[in-house]
Structure formats: structure tokens, C-alpha cells
Amino acid sequence: MSAPAAHLFQSQPNAARRSERATFWLFRAATYLVLACGLGVFGTIFFKGAGTVFKAEAPFINTTFFTDAPESLYVFEFEGKKYEMGDREFRAFKKKHPAAATVKSESYVYSAGGIFPCIVGTVLLVVGSMTIALVLGVCAAIYLNEYARDGLFIRFVRLAILNLAGVPSIVFGLFGFGMFVIYFGWNVSLIAGWFTLAFMVLPVVITASEESLKAVPKGFREGSLALGATKWQTIRQNVVPYALPGILTSSILGIARVAGETAPIMFTAAYVVRDKLPWDVDKAGDFFFQGVMALPYHIYVVSSKIPQNDYTERVQYGTAFVFLLVVAFIAASSIILRNKLRSRYKW
Amino acid sequence: MVIADPMLMDTPSSAPAKSSAYKPAVRLSPASVPLAAAPGAAAAPIGETLVDISHLDFFYNTSQALHDINLKIEAKNVTAFIGPSGCGKSTLLRCLNRMNDLIDGTRVARGTIKIHGVDIYQPDVDVIELRKRVGMVFQKSNPFPKSIYENITFGLRLQGMNDPAKLDEIVEKSLRGAALWDEVKDRLGASGMGLSGGQQQRLCIARAIAVEPEVILMDEPCSALDPVATAKVEELIQELRSRFTIIIVTHNMQQAARCSDKTAFFYLGKLIEFADTRDIFTKPANAQTEAYVSGRFG
Q: How many whole angstroms separate alpha carbon B110 and alpha carbon B106?
């Protein structure tokens, strides 16, 4: 029996109040759990990768990791001291100290040097595939939202887009391999990777572009048409510019996906190792038909295709850390671009 | 493309050379000249029938929105469409510049709408040309989220006008024409969306008159405005009536009484009565009209 109420509105413990509190804490705990997972993932990568990416002395950033290609790491003892050296450094060392020529060393592949070719490859893959996806996706979205009349065919198209979104990325990889690499004869190349990745994010881009186009008030279209604009003039000048920030927002999600997927590029664009950089080509046309190294594939290679040890772990986490930085950088630039556009057309 | 510009003649301050360059466009004769071919705005004399609607039946899919409408709208007059919601007055207005084409499933089942004697629903009509001559101001003000200047020049640029001096001139004239110039002359580069509701609506009017239409359709232009802004727009309508044929849809009977010459009362998709505004409000011929204007229903 509860105490008698002191006044009319005295709060009393009851079932509703208890369940209210319980629900509140349930939701709150769920949110905190998500936060903890995120922190756990990022924290691990940060702390384990920081040792590779940063260093104790100035300029505090391990520049070779950003600017060099992967090399084998040599670990050896010489005159009582323990050394860890990359391939080239080791050879120079042996030249300088002839006595070291016969020293017994252990070698670990890809554990020295840097990941510059992977960074370049990933940036190229993202830029190329997002360009293709945006052009195709925005055109398709404009057609679906502005021109097409709702009917059986359009419903079928939408269903196809939805289904495309549900296809596992490895299937896109196989599709790209069969279609672009073999049938079109593009071999393992940037362009094959671009199209494979572009097709993978197309559903995201189309759906989001359509939503952004839908969000543009009808009044702008009517106002434009009532002034004697054609449909395309209206769309080009008074619909798409206003929808662009929204389209870019969604493509930011696409960027993270494109940059991160390993499966679609492992058959179509990615090399385990390549000593030439992408712009190191004889003719400009060859640029599109060369394979590249890519960050996610490099992580895959160093984490599963070579013998694991402490030295490879450094590269794994270092690469993962840089990978996050690269994605963050590309996403941040599109956010800045979007905000610029958004402030230009405020409504 | 020459923009025939009656406003040039109204403002003595503008260059006389330009005024003399203004040629009144050839009056359209229905048989020989298609609507699209006429340059600029033809000047229909005051009181002459400009828009001739006869036996118009209009459908949204299977539901009939307009029943046998017969209406002759005179040039250089303000015609008000009044009636309760859903009576078809906005639908009829949007028929006049074929904005209903944008809605799937709409069709004119019978009858004609002639402007200058040309049936605007005949197959070879260029809707773009029609809309250049029949401008529209919407219920919800819809300036483009661009600068005030770009809002006004949008229609002109569509017509291929790119001469900056000429554009500047028309922007000023249109804004003056819409009684907005003094309020915005120092911030033509600012977004049109940054203006107040009443200013936005006047910007939309300025945008519409910049392309020199003959007819301006106004679909409840004041329904979202406060009384002060409404008064300004009504004042503006009075100023524009000498140059344009204005058709205004309104829910506000006082507004119709204040600013129109002729009033058409619609009820359930039918035109009940069309007469001089004074007569509609003082001695309506029809009992339903009388009941509506006296506030007994609707």
C-alpha cells in the first residue's frame, strides 16, 4: 500500500511508470552498444595502425608508408644489433657493409615500404566508378521521376533496381569478370573495375537521386513551365540543380561502399602487386586497361595470402588506418561540395 | 526574338528611340496565323473578347470537373473566378495555359478554348508558345531559389535574350511593374526565397510580366498572404489591368468585389453566373449566386 498522497498531483509508483523507465533504458543501452561497437572497431584500427602511420620523431608521420610501394622486409642481426630493413635499404646496407652480404636474414613479403600504389588505385577506382554511376544513375532517375508515366514497365524497372541492390558484391565481381574482363576483352583493368563497381552502386544512386528529385517542390517545375520553358529546360535549370545536394549526400554512402568493396575488384581490377604506377603508361589509352593495386584488396592479401606474423600485422592495420583516412577524405570533399551547392540554392 | 514591350511606352523616362522601335504586333487571325507565329504580345483592344471558352467539358480520369462551360473573357479586364472549393475554378484557370497537361489522366472531352480565335487544344499548338503568352501566378508563391535577378531573367533567357543591358532594363521595369523595385533594388543578387511571403508573390508577378504575356492567370495569389501583403497585391492588380488581361481565382469574395471588372461564379463544376462584378454582388440573377455572395453557403 503506497503512502497517502500529500497533494492532488503526488507522483505514485505504478506499472506504467516502471515500464516507461525500463523502455528508456533499453533504448539507451542499445544506442550505447552501437556506439561501443563503433568505438571498438575504430579504436583497434587507430591504435594498431597508428604505430605504422605515425612515428616518434619529426615529421611524426611515416612518409614512406604513404609514398613508397610495398617491399619485402628483412630482419637480421649484424654486429650484435638487430635491424629491420626494406628490400632497397637492405641492399644499400650490404653495399656499404660488405661483411653484411652473407648475414642470415629473415624476409617477410609486403611488410616494408608503403602503400602508395594502393592509395592511388583506390582513389582512381572511386572517382571513375562514381562518375559512371552518377551519370547513369542520375539520368535514369530523371527519366523515372520526370518523364516516365507510372505503368507496368516502370514498376518492373523499379523492381529490377531493387533486386540489383540485393545482389551480393561477389556476384557483381563474377559478372564483371565474365562481362568486361573476358567477353569485352578488357582484361583485369581499371575500366573493368569502374563499370563493375558502378553497377554495384547504381541502385543506391538511382534510388537516392529519385528521392532527391521528388523532394524538389512541384512549384518550381510549374513556375518554370508556366514561363514557357520546355520540360528539359525546366529539369536542367530548375530541378536538377536543387536536387544535386541530395544526390551528392547519397553518393557519399556510395563512395564508402565503392572504396571498401573487395569482391567486385578482385577479379576485375586489382593486382596483388604492381611495380608500375598507373600514370606510368606508354600510350594514354593504356591507362584504362591496366590493373591497379587497391587498399581493400591489399588488406585482404596481407591478412590472408601471406604468412602471418607481427610484421604483417603492422601493415594490415596501417593499411586499414590509411584506408579509413582516404575514405574520410573523399567523403569530406563531397560533403564540402554538397554544402557549397546547398548554400547556393536554399529553399 | 524581339520582346514587344508596352511598358516602354508607359515609362517616359526610358529612351524614346526604344519606344519608337516598339512595333505593335500583328493581330492574329485564326485562319492564317498559328498562335506560335506571332511575335510578342498582340494588343487586343479593351473589352474585346480575348479568351473564348465554349461548351467545355473537362475530366480528371473518369470524374468530370467542368460541365459545359461557356465564357467570354475580355481583354484588358480583370475577371474573377469565385466559388466554393472543388467547384472547378482553378481547373478552368489551369486549362487556359494548359497546365493541366502536367497531370496524368486529365482531358478536355468536349468544347474549345480559343485565345485570339485559335483553339489552344488543337494538336498543332505549341504549348511553350502558349505559356509565353499566358503567364501564371500560383497560389503558393514559387520563386526559384536563385537570385531575384535570375528569377526575372529566367523567362527572358529562355527566349534567347542575353544582352545584359537589355536584361537589366527589363528586370528594373518588371520589378517596378510589380511594385517591388524600391524594396529589392539594392539586393538583386540575393535569393528570391529570402523575401517575405508578399514580396515573393510580387516577385512571381514580376517574373510573369517580364516576358510580356497578354494574359496573366492568378490562382488564389493572396491566399497565403497577410492583409497588408494582400492589399499590395490587389493594388498591383489595379495597376496591371491596363496592360494585361488578368484572370484571378479567389476564395475571398471581397477581393473579387474589390479588384475585378467581371466575376464568374462556379458551383460543382458548372458556371452558374457570369456578369459585371457590381451586378454579381449587388443584384445576382441566380439564387445560388446570391446565397454564396451573401455568405449563406460555401
A: 12
Integer Cα distance of A164 and A203 in angstroms: 6
Q: For B36, which residue in chain A has the nearest alpha carbon? A: A228
CA distances from A238 to A223, B5, B129, B146 (A): 9, 26, 19, 9
What pLDDT digit, counting tens, does each position of A215-236 carry? 999 999 999 999 999 999 999 9
First-residue to last-residue Cα distance in chain B: 47
Check if the beta carbon of residue B262 is closer than 8 Å to that of residue B276: yes
Quote the pTM value. Answer: 0.80
Per the DSSP assignment, residues forming a β-bridge with B47 are none
ipTM value: 0.80
Residue A65, classified by CB atoms within 10 Å of its CB into exposed (0-12), middle (13-18) or buried (19+), is buried
Alpha-carbon distance of B41 to B212, in angstroms, equals 7
Sequence-ordered list of residues with C-beta below 8 angstroms from that of B97, at least 6 positions apart, any chain: A226, B130, B131, B134, B135, B136, B215, B217
The per-residue pLDDT for range A20-69, each reduced to its tens digit, is 999 999 999 999 999 999 999 999 999 999 888 888 777 888 888 888 88
- Helices A169-176 and A190-215: angle between axes, nearest 10 degrees: 130
**Of the candidates B221, B288, B264, which has an alpha carbon nearest to the alpha carbon of residue B77?**
B264
- CB distance B167 to B161 below 8 Å: yes
Query: Which amino acid would we find at residue B83?
Result: G
Residue B197 C-alpha cell reads as: 511571403
Decide if B49 touches A, using CB distance below 8 A: no
Q: Which residues of chain B are within 8 Å of residue A227 when distances are taken between CB atoms?
A: 131-132, 135, 154-155, 158, 207-208, 211
